[in-house]
Amino acid sequence: MINRVRQLRKERLMTLETLADRAGVTKSYLSKIERGQSVPSIAISASLAKALDVPLDNLFADAEELTDVTVTRAGERRPLTSEDEAGTRYEGMALEAGTKSMTPFMLHPPLDAGPVPFRDHPGEEFLFVHHGRAELILPSRTITLGPGDCAYFKATQPHKLRSLGTERAAVLLLVSDAHAHVHADAAAAPGLRLP
Fold first, then answer.
1. Which listed CATH number (1.10.10.10, 3.20.20.30, 2.60.120.10, 3.30.70.100) goes with 78-181?
2. 3-59 — its CATH code?
3. All CATH 2.60.120.10 domain ranges in the chain, comma separated
4. Residues of CATH 1.10.260.40 domain(s) within the chain?
5. At 90, phi and psi to the nearest 5?
6. Where are the transmembrane segments (predicted)?
7. SS3 of 173-189
8. d(Cα 121, Cα 187) in Å, to the nearest integer?
């Protein structure tokens, strides 16, 4: 994502300040994202995508790379965070897929979620535990998930995830892009006007 946000911002003739205001982040943090010095969370990425009026996956792949059918082999997942990341580590999947209403990631939650803030964003999330055990933490309760277990929830609900045990779990995360649904609905009903 290093220069993708900057490229999209410049294509829209937006200043750093304008995009930062629309996405609800500071100008200095946005600058760090654009220079590759900081990797935004999924929630912030969703805010940036909404502010740029693009599907979430467009932040991670160039438009020229997008295709109708995308296969991501196990060894080809693109790391979106460094191996040393203390928080959740993300790997991109199907980044080259064309227009879609959900974005898949393989994530490896931290063992200690204490310092990780709760996140919330538009859309919905689907979690499937591929390996290990994880705990979905909500303000009102926690839900333990083992291999093969899944959870589906509104992403507007504050949430975070941690691995249980001695090593990080591998969790498939599907994030729906509520913004993409609006565009899909508009395409299906040409007379529909978007706000």
1. 2.60.120.10
2. 1.10.260.40
3. 78-181
4. 3-59
5. -115, 140
6. none
7. EEEECHHHHHHHHHHHC
8. 24
User: How do residues 62-97 score in pLDDT, each as one tens digit?
Assistant: 555 555 566 667 777 777 777 777 788 888 777 666
- For β-strands 170-176 and 142-145, DSSP reports them as unpaired
What the block records as the tokens of 8 is 């999209």
Contact, 136 vs 161, CB < 8 A? yes
Q: DSSP characters for the chain?
A: -TTHHHHHHHHTT--HHHHHHHHT--HHHHHHHHTTS----HHHHHHHHHHHTS-GGGGTS-GGG-BSS----GGGPEESS-TT-SS-EEEE-STTB-S-SEEEEEEE--S--TTSPPB--SSEEEEEEEESEEEEE-SS-EEEE-TT-EEEEETTS-BEEEEESSS--EEEEEEE-HHHHHHHHHHHSTTPPP-
Span 166-186, mean pLDDT? Answer: 68
- The CA dihedral of 118, 89, 80, 44, to the nearest 10 degrees, is 0
What pTM did the predictor assign? 0.59
In this structure, what token pair is assigned to residue 183? Answer: 């565009």
